[in-house]
Every structure is written in C-alpha cells, then in structure tokens.
Amino acid sequence: MSEEKLREYKGLIDKYEAGRTIYTRVWDVSLLYVQGRQHLEYDRNVSRYISQRPSPGRFRVTINLMLQYYRTVLSKLQITVPNITVLPASPSTEDLIKARMAEDAFQYYYQEDDFAEKAAKMLEWLLTCGTTALHTFYDPGEERVRTEVVSPYDIYVEKGAQSDKQSRFIALRQFVTKADLKEAYPDHADAIDDAPTATSDTYDTGNTNYQTLDDRVIIFEIYGNDGTTGVMMGNTILFKGEWSGKHPVNIIRYTEVPGRYWGIGLLEPMVELQNLYNRS
Prior knowledge:
Layout: H1 2-19, H2 21-34, E1 40-43, E2 48-51, H3 65-79, H4 93-112, H5 115-129, E3 131-139, E4 144-150, E5 155-157, E6 169-177, H6 178-184, H7 189-194, E7 216-224, E8 228-233, E9 236-242, E10 249-253, H8 271-279
Antiparallel strand pairs: 1-2, 3-4, 3-10, 5-6, 6-7, 7-8, 8-9
Helix pairs in contact: 3-5
C-alpha cells in the first residue's frame, strides 16, 4: 500500500513542478533585486530573467533601496532568537524538577544543533521569499537529532492546496551526490548509477549563473498525511515506510494570506517601488 501511495504522491509532485513557476518567478525577482540585479526582463526562450540592455548612449545607475531594508530588518530579527520555556504542570516539587529538566534538555539541543545559525538562515528565506520550513530528523551518522532549514524552492505540496491540511502530502527536494546516495541505499546502486544528473541549479534563482552541480541527482523525501513516508529518486523507491503522528516538517510564513499556501516576504511588495525609483 505504501509503495502505491508513494507513486501517487510522486505523480502529484510532477504536476506541482509543472505549475509552480507563478511563485518561483516572484522568489527569483526578490532574490535578484536584493543582489542589485535589477532592470530585468523574462526571456521565454531560456526561461530565465535577464538584464535589459540600456539604450545607446545612456548609462544606468541602480541605488538598491531594498538591500538597506533587508539588512536592517534581518539584523533586528536575528537579535531575538526564539527560545523555549517549560512551565510545570503543578507547583509540586516533582513537576518543578521535570519542567527544569525538560527546559535544560531544550537548551542543550539548541546549542548542540547550533539553532541560532539555523534561525538566521530561516529568517533570510522568510524575508526574501516569504516561506521556509524546518525539518527535524534523526541523523544516524552523528547519532543525534538535527534540524535543517529548507528553502521554499525545495518544498513540494499538492497543486492547488491553500493550506497544509489541504495538501495530502509534503515533499522535500534534495540534491545528493551519487556516492552518498549509494552509501545510504546500496541495494539501489545500479539504479543510482543510471540516474540522470540534475539539470538545474540548487534553487533556480540565478545567483549561481545557472551552473549545474556535478554528479548530483534529485531525490524527494515524502511525508503523506495518511502516515506513508518514503524516499524517491525519479520513479525508483529508495525507501518506504510508515509514519505515526504529525510529520516532522514545519512550514513557517512571514506574512500569511488567507487562501494562499505560500507566504509573502518583506521584499515582494517592495519590487514595484524599487522599479518606480529606478525609472525616476
């Protein structure tokens, strides 16, 4: 049953891939503008944003106002790293001790996993693209629980979903070297060798000049709302299993809008203002 469900979810991932450009183009523009790469136009021939050529005899000067706001807000938010306080269930000595031990455990995890750095990366994605995710998992190599920040480009949900509950699954895209993948899934070594190399850069943002990563393949870690979980590489199921309880992926949005799955970042509403300033 889990294998059948995973293939169904992979088909839904492919459908979402074909129709998600309406969001990724907004993220692309926000990331390019904060870099100072403005005066853009979309080239349908190469499916990329390219710089407009200035008129003959004219020079173009760009004063990047968005960067100033981005740095100011980011620095202020980084000062207030989220923390956890555990309250006792009752004033009894036993509950007070339990609450203190639980709080100490959280503090240890924050320091062990360098959560302050993870929070900074989370804020960067929230301000630029409006959405990010925290994925918590057990790392058998390090023998500890870890949390990683996931870019919105690597989050896949059901096409048309307006909320987490509406989507029947959530999937996380990863670019993994074939050597690492064969070490993790030796039973599928032949399929991994035959898998095509990933043809897109990590985030499709343009900030890497669209260079591809060598010897990488794309895999999807899938969590279904029905408890199905697995890892897929193309149509090959590398791992399948069952998950009980809530899946370990938490979606975080900068500005939530009713009826819209993806949040709005700090920079998106500023793009048109920057365009008006550039034309003045």
